[in-house]
Amino acid sequence: MTNHTEWKALSKSLTFRHQAYINGRFQPAISGETFPCINPATEQLLVDVASCDEADVNLAVESALQAYRSGVWSELEPKQRKRILLKLADLVEQHKDEFALLDTLDMGKSISEMTAIDIPDSIDCIRWTAECIDKIYGEIAPTGNDTLALISHEPVGVVAAITPWNYPLMMATWKLAPALAAGNSVILKPSEKSPLSALRLAELASEAGIPDGVFNVLPGFGHTAGKALGLHHDVNVLAFTGSTRVAGMLMEYAGQSNLKRVWLEAGGKSPNLIFEDCEDVKKAAATAAAAIFSNQGEVCIACSRIYVQKSIKEAFIAALVEAAKSYQPGDPLDPATNMGPMVDEAQLDTVARFIRSAQDEGGQVLLGGLPEYIEGKGFYAKPTIVAEAHNGMTFVQEEIFGPVLAVCEFETEEEAIALANDSKYGLGASVWTANLSRAHRVSRKIHSGMIWVNTWGEGDSTVPFGGVKASGNGRDKSLHAMEKYTELKNVWIRL
Ligand code: NAD
C-alpha cells in the first residue's frame, strides 16, 4: 500500500496534459485562452488549461463527424471495437496511480476513495461495456410470412458528454464507454474544475487504438464550450451529469437547435428513512454518516435528509454523532484521510450559507458548523449534523452538495413516505427496516430511481444508475445505458 509520503512524492513527479485533444492530438484553444487549475487542498496552481469555446467545438465536431462518417470506428467489426476498449481499460489500470492522483489533486477527493471506488469502478465500466459489444443482437419482428422486418441498433453519430467535477474520471467513463461501444464519435467536455484526468484518458484512448477524431476532449467552461456543444446542429446526443439548473438549459439548447437527444443525470436530495424496527441502529447510523460525509458530501446520491422514527430518535442520533466524528477533513493525499477539501471556495461558501440558513430557521447544530481554515489553506468544511429539521426549511429542500445533514423525525410509515417524496428531486433513497413487507411497501412508494434497503450507495456495472423528477432521465451503466447511444432502425423486406 502506498503511504502518505509516497503519494506526495508521486504527485510531484506528475506531468499534466493541459491542451484540448482534437482529432488525435493535443492543441491549444484556438483563442489561445487558458484557465487555471487549482489544487483545493493547497490553493496552489497545478497548471493552466486550454479554455475551449465555440471555435474549438466546431473543429472537434467536424473531426468527430468525419470520423463517424468514414466508418473507421462506427463500422468496425464489433469484436475489434471490443478489443480496443478492453485495451483502454488495461491502460487505465496500468496508470491507476496517476489517475488517482490527477483527480485528487484537481478536485480534492481523498486518495483512498480514488483507489477504492473511482478507479476500480471506471476500469470496470469500460471493461464491462466493452464485453457487451458483441453480445447485443438485433430482432426480427413477427410481421407475418410475406415480409421480413429487421430491427437493428445503429450508432447515433456525434455524442457530446458534459460531466461534473465530483467523480471526474468515473462520470466520464460512464458516458464514453457505452457511447464508444455503440460506435459513436464522442466529444467529452469535463468540468472546468477537474479537466486533467479526461485529457490523460484521451491520450490513452489513442494509444489503445481508438482512431483519430473518435474521442475528443475539450476543456472549457459551460457557458462557452458546453453551450456551443448544446447548440451545435451536428451533435446528435447530449449526455450530461451535473446540476438540475444546467440540465434545464441543455433541454433548451436542444429545442433551439436540432432536437438532439438530451440525457440528464442531475441533482439530488436523497432521503434516508430509519424505522424503529431496523435491525441495527448503530449500523444504520454509521451508514447514514457515510452517506453524507464520504467525498465531503459532494455526492449526487448523498442521503442529506434523514427521517428517523420518533421512538428511536434519541438512540439513533447519539449513534450518528458518534459515527460522524470519525470523519475528519485532512490532506487528501494521506490514505488515512476520509474527507478532503471542497472543490473550491465557492462550494465552501455554499456550505457555509446553508449552515447559516439552517441555524436561522431553527435547526440545532449537533456537530460541525461553519467552516474554518485548516492551517490557513484549503477549502475544508466540517461534517455537520443539524437536528430539529423539517421539510419547511430551505436547507432540507435544496441540494447543498456538501457535508451537511438534516435530521427530521416522523411517527408513521405513511408520514415517512410523504416526507421523503416531498422533494423536487428523485435520485436515491435509503430505507432501514427488518420488516420485509415494509421494505417492499416503502420502496414501491418512494419516487426515486434507486432505493437501497438496509444499505446505501451500492452500485455495479450491471445495474442502471439514474433518477426521476428533477434528478433527470435516462440511465448510466448496465445495458440500459446503450439505449441512450443507439437508434433503432428497421428494414422491411417484402418477400
Ligand atoms: P454543473 O451543472 O455546474 O456543471 C456540470 C457540467 O456542465 C460542467 O462540465 C459545466 O462546465 C457544464 N455547464 C455549466 N453550464 C453550462 C451551460 N450553460 N451549457 C453547457 N454546459 C454547462 O454541475 P457541477 O457543479 O459540476 O456538479 C454538481 C452537480 O452534479 C450536482 O447537482 C450533483 O447532484 C450533480 N451530479 C449528478 C449525478 C447523477 O448521476 N445524477 C452524479 C454526479 C453529480
TrEMBL record:
Record: active site: 265
InterPro entries: Ald_DH/histidinol_DH, Ald_DH_C, Ald_DH_CS_CYS, Ald_DH_CS_GLU, Ald_DH_N, Aldehyde_DH_dom
GO molecular function: aldehyde dehydrogenase [NAD(P)+] activity
Domain Aldehyde dehydrogenase: 31-491
PROSITE patterns found in the cross-reference section: ALDEHYDE_DEHYDR_CYS (PS00070), ALDEHYDE_DEHYDR_GLU (PS00687)
Entry-linked Gene3D superfamilies: Aldehyde Dehydrogenase, Chain A, domain 1 (3.40.605.10), Aldehyde Dehydrogenase, Chain A, domain 2 (3.40.309.10)
Keywords recorded for this protein, A-Z: Oxidoreductase
Pfam families tied to this protein: Aldedh
Protein family membership: Belongs to the aldehyde dehydrogenase family.
PANTHER family xrefs: ALDEHYDE DEHYDROGENASE-RELATED
Name of protein: Gamma-glutamyl-gamma-aminobutyraldehyde dehydrogenase
